[in-house]
């Protein structure tokens, strides 16, 4: 009797546990493009096209390797529109009575598989370095779940950049070397781009006709859509950008969307690349003397530190994590997150590139769009849904802890010990946006002042009961309290006027 083997759109790897448990001779792989998955948020068309094209190519690859694959296209007349529906249809057609699956990266889909009328065995997703049990063991009993301590465990576990039991170079973390402001010139030409082949063209037509109304530009479409291409994109980054990745990791430039970033998160998250090969490629460049330690350590930390830590937090905290709202923020998401229609140059540029590329790098996500949403008091669930929709690499297991936790402090301080907020000065230092902005970053109050400036102080004032005693924020509150009463009133008034304008839908 054959069994079904479910492979989801972000499980495009031969290493999936469900495939390892299956029998190539008798079991049937099920892959399905379904409306439920393509519409639980209004995904960016590039994200949908990427996944559908990569799914189709992976299905063809599995068939070549001798697997029987039952693939449902979105426009198949009998498509039921859901993963459980497609499993049931496949069960009826094949006579299969059970399903082998790898645990999905979202509680919603885990629950749907648990409720499926046909029994589904969910095996752990061991594409990750840290299992749920291992994260629990690390986290249990700790007062604070700081990423840095978790990361050190992962370095020890993998032996990456280790010299015996000591960190390579004598330090665990070279972050303080990785905060150089925007360079005058970027020597990297950006991520490797791939011309659409026949499979991609077919998918682009489908996505254009079905999801053309979603936020985001579909063409030009240049993503890698199979493992071979993703591997070339990785190698291109390692040789062309990694050496400067560290130095300019936090920098932003008006005229450059990628700087020295790898732009591989969508490939790693979908299964086209694995964490180990990605880290080993970076470490090999260091061993050959082609990339400095601050770059390679910084890169490895993002993958075995932040990425694994975020996943650990998501699965530890549970399904209600995405509804948390520790700061009680309730403003609705502003129209310019979809239109880019704002005079704030930094926000406009971040949203424009998100629209065009389904990509923004970490500091744009954290310190431009995320920072603004937090300072303006936007409902974190709305912020979460926006991020989940607009980025090609967004799946709840990684997006939610980054947004609800790191960016919006809506989890009350599990991911971060203090909120990631800043006034315009941080953006001025790290980018050239402010030089082209209608607002003046040097002004603190009034119509011409950079809104980040007064919103920053107004945020601290609004949340003084919560943060006033936080030692990591003591300096900020001292500075605030050193200002004259008139000055503080003027700042709060500017913030109030600006927020009223936001609520009235006035252009800002
Ligand atoms: P690089 O800067 O080149 O970094 C290398 C790799 O490290 C990335 O490809 C990624 O796999 C990993 N990485 C780096 N930072 C993180 C992090 N904080 N969490 C997890 N992995 C990390 N990342 C996602 O993969 N999906 C998301 O939905 C997502 N949402 C985010 C939302 C917010 C508000 C913030 C602040 C960050 C978010 N991130 C998310 C993390 C990070 O911004 C992206 O991983 C990164 O920008 C991807 O671009 P890159 O491949 O060029 O990364
Ligand atoms: C994101 C996504 C989209 C847009 N479409 C599909 C799909 O049609 N079929 C599928 O199997 N998976 C898709 N995915 C990925 C799933 O949403 C993802 O597996 C879950 O959110 C868990 O991470
Ligand atoms: Fe952004 Fe303020 Fe700079 Fe304008 S002045 S780009 S709003 S930080």
Number of beta-strand segments: 7
The value of Rg in angstroms is 23 Å
- Largest beta sheet: strand ordering: 3-2-1-4-5
Q: What's the assembly state of these chains?
A: single chain
Q: What share of residues are in beta strands?
A: under 5%
Distance between the termini: 64 Å
Mean of all residue-level pLDDT scores: 97
Shape: globular
Strand/helix succession: EHEHHEHEHEHHEEHHHHHHHHHHHHHHHH
- Compute the number of helices: 23
Topology:
Layout lengths: L3 E3 L10 H5 L6 E5 L2 H5 L5 H20 L3 E5 L10 H12 L4 E4 L4 H8 L5 E4 L8 H8 L7 H12 L3 E2 L2 E2 L30 H14 L15 H14 L1 H4 L19 H6 L4 H13 L5 H25 L18 H4 L5 H13 L4 H15 L3 H11 L5 H12 L16 H7 L20 H12 L1 H4 L6 H9 L2 H20 L4
Parallel strand pairs: 1-2, 1-4, 2-3, 4-5
Antiparallel strand pairs: 6-7
Iron/sulfur cluster binds next to helix 15, helix 19 and helix 20.
Tell me what you see in this structure:
This protein is mainly α. The chain is built from 23 helices and 7 strands. The chain has helices spanning 17-21, 35-39, 45-64, 83-94, 107-114, 132-139, 147-158, 198-211, 227-240, 242-245, 265-270, 275-287, 293-317, 336-339, 345-357, 362-376, 380-390, 396-407, 424-430, 451-462, 464-467, 474-482, 485-504; strands spanning 4-6, 28-32, 68-72, 99-102, 120-123, 162-163, 166-167. The strands form 2 sheets. The chain has a 5-stranded parallel beta sheet with strand order 3-2-1-4-5, with helices on both faces. β4 (99-102), α5 and β5 form a beta-alpha-beta unit. It starts with a strand and ends with a helix. The mean pLDDT is 97. The chain binds flavin-adenine dinucleotide (FAD), ligand DLZ and iron/sulfur cluster (SF4). Ligand DLZ is lined by residues 8-10, 32-34, 37-38, 43, 48, 51, 104-106, 109, 395.
